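hi! just following up on the protien thing from before. the input was this:
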Amino acid sequence: MQYKRILLKLSGESLAGEAGRGIDPACLESYARQVCEVARMGAEIGIVIGGGNIFRGLSGTRTGVDRVTGDQMGMLATVINGLALCSALEREGQPCKVMTALRVEPVGEYYARERAIEYLRSGHVVIFSGGTGNPLFTTDTAGSLRAIEINADILLKGTRVDGVYTADPEKDPTATKFERISHDEIYRLGLKVMDLTATTLCKENGLPLVVFNMDVPGNLKRVVTGENVGTVVY
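and the predicted 3d structure came back as:
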């Protein structure tokens, strides 16, 4: 196994499946099975999941919701997704804890770094929900932050595409894929891999990133075992 401790970043939209909103049970089950497969190999897994399938703060401002309030609503949406994923993992027999950056006990345990690391060492998958706990930050930033805090070996971003491209491959059929790309090249080319705050956190803390297609069953295991899947950002 190439990576012992990982932070997996999932988008909320990925849980919606073809419906585009809400939580698709088939997607949830597929993700849970992939995570369990890797956990049973001995990997320590933290997960940050977005909330865009339920509510996205930026889109809320277009309907008259204040930006800060909208972001708080989005953070609560990530708690809902975290609870759903935790339940799916437990159905597969995998111990799991939901930790939140917002105080919503007893729904989730308030995040503390030392406690999170204890759970990881004891074989629990730890789902970090509530974003960073602050408005104006994305869950990509939360993923980078939590990965650094728990001393993860790698940040894995599971998406609907199989890596980083010169343009959006869903919109531009001429887009070409990068096998490896540096954080500096991402800045220079203006690629939307993650928001700039998240990218800067990774760069300044020497945290490598792999972007891969989580919708292909078995891909998570392939990445963790060192297969050439997705794009490595260094």
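The two ends are 19 Å apart (CA to CA).
Residues 5-233 form a domain with the Carbamate kinase fold (CATH 3.40.1160.10).
cheers
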